[in-house]
């Protein structure tokens, strides 16, 4: 019963982890959309006006203080894209069907049973060793008592 509970709780925690990964993925996609929007905004702010023939007056170029934000946005977009890729790769694949999950649970159950059997064997061996140690300690204590009794008798004889 405990094994079944552990397997179910592991399954529930994997569902929670998947939900967390989906939330992280959505956050990363939103961040990437912000990166694209902000980079387009910077491009609009810093772009020099161009003249289209046949449309109105030609605007006079104005002096603008242009800082190159290109490198910053390239880094942010690339890093966020890599984060999205990692999150997508961590999601369960379509191949992860109910049958595969069931097979995985059965494999975990078998491994758990084997580990339980090994634990029982180790406990049995430990109990046997403990009994031998207790027996040896008992024999040592008996021998010490016998030595003390003999010494007490030999002390009484010499006095």
What does this molecule look like?
Helix content is 80%, strand content 0%. By secondary structure, it is mostly helical. It folds into 2 domains: 1-46 and 69-91; 117-159. Helix 1 packs antiparallel against helix 2. The chain starts with a helix and ends with a helix.
Question: Which helices and strands, and how do they pair?
Answer:
Layout: H1 2-46, H2 70-90, H3 98-158
Helix pairs in contact: 1-2
Keywords:
159 residues, mainly alpha, 80% helix, 2 domains, disordered N terminus
The major sheet is characterized as: none
SSE series: HHH
What percent of the residues sit in helical stretches (DSSP H or I)?
over 70%
Radius of gyration: 39 Å
Brief summary of the model shown:
The protein has helices at residues 2-46, 70-90, 98-158. The protein has 159 residues and is mainly α.
């Amino acid at each position: 019963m405990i094994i079944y509970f552990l397997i179910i709780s592991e399954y529930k925690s994997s569902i929670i982890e998947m939900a967390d990964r989906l939330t992280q993925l959505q956050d990363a996609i939103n961040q990437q959309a912000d990166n694209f929007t902000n980079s387009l905004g910077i491009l609009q702010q810093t772009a020099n006006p161009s003249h289209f023939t046949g449309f109105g007056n030609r605007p006079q170029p104005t002096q603008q203080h242009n800082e190159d934000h290109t490198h910053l946005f390239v880094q942010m977009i690339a890093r966020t894209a890599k984060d999205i890729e990692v999150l997508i790769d961590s999601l369960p694949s379509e191949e992860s069907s109910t049958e595969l999950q069931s097979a995985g649970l059965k494999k975990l159950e078998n491994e758990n049973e084997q580990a339980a059997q090994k634990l029982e064997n180790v406990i049995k061996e430990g109990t046997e060793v403990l009994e031998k140690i207790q027996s040896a300690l008992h024999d040592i204590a008996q021998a010490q008592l016998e030595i003390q009794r003999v010494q007490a008798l030999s002390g009484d004889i010499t006095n």
